[in-house]
């Protein structure tokens, strides 16, 4: 097959996947996790039921793919924010702040999140995030901006857990304070 | 009825409840959450099936009661540790350290915990714990040992989240470091 044809097929596949995930996200937002059926997803996405089943065997697999897309977007967003800052200490601070904001947004999707967070892709994404934050911490520690008496991996775990408190933040000011306190814990003794 | 008789009935009720919860805990530990039936609990606890159903309508209610007992024990343990220290800063540190150890132990019971943590009693216990830590923080802040620029309630949420990192601590030394870093975040700027 010519290359162009393969590309067309790939683009079509992507379009079907995206349409399915968009329709599922909209339906879950409207009716909750348990109120969605394969037929409704087919109807909402404009994809034939038979075609839908070729892409996804069941609701569970669609939700997993949707969550993976969502998590990937977050990781990309954090990577982008990191690149906007040249200085390691600023970089770490900007990423942790963005992560706190994402944690806070996540509050609303808690039913779905707790259902999906144990999935393999979510565990991998968490590991990826942990490595990403560890690397930022290592870079900042080399410049003396972050304490050197605790391994970077442990400090990264501390940050990710501490910033989970952002889910309870009732205002932007409260969210800022959580980030400030978490950063204080990272500072050299 | 004479008072003694009421006391005897109350003691008997407590004994039946305790025996049921102990048997359930042992069976869940052995077979997992989904491998336990009412008949087996009756058999293991030495309580007749009919009697068991008078106390608990279903497995779910037994698990909730068992979890509540477990959570209450933890809260009592933390309160006891608090009372052993006279000085507010030490008190806060000792309680946070004990909470980190409990968080780490909780790792093993994650299947059951995630199932039960949304239950009403667990939410109440979490609120109780949050208030308890907030009070310790307020007392330490009044003596200038904890930062005063962030409300005690927010600092308590920060502590409870940050110490969740203890679930990933691979050694006692790592657990100590998590506590140290979390306490650094509390220190006056």
From TrEMBL, chains A, B:
Q: Which SUPFAM superfamilies does UniProt cross-reference here?
A: Homeodomain-like (SSF46689), Tetracyclin repressor-like, C-terminal domain (SSF48498)
Give a GO molecular function annotation for the protein: transcription cis-regulatory region binding
Q: Where is the HTH tetR-type domain?
A: 14-74
Q: Which PROSITE patterns match?
A: HTH_TETR_2 (PS50977)
This protein's UniProt keywords: DNA-binding, Transcription, Transcription regulation
Q: Which Pfam families match?
A: TetR_C_43 (PF21597), TetR_N (PF00440)
Where is the DNA-binding region?
37-56
- What residue range is the signal peptide? none
Q: Which domain of life is it from?
A: Bacteria
Q: What is the protein's name according to its record?
A: TetR/AcrR family transcriptional regulator
Q: Where does this protein come from, organism-wise?
A: Actinocrinis puniceicyclus
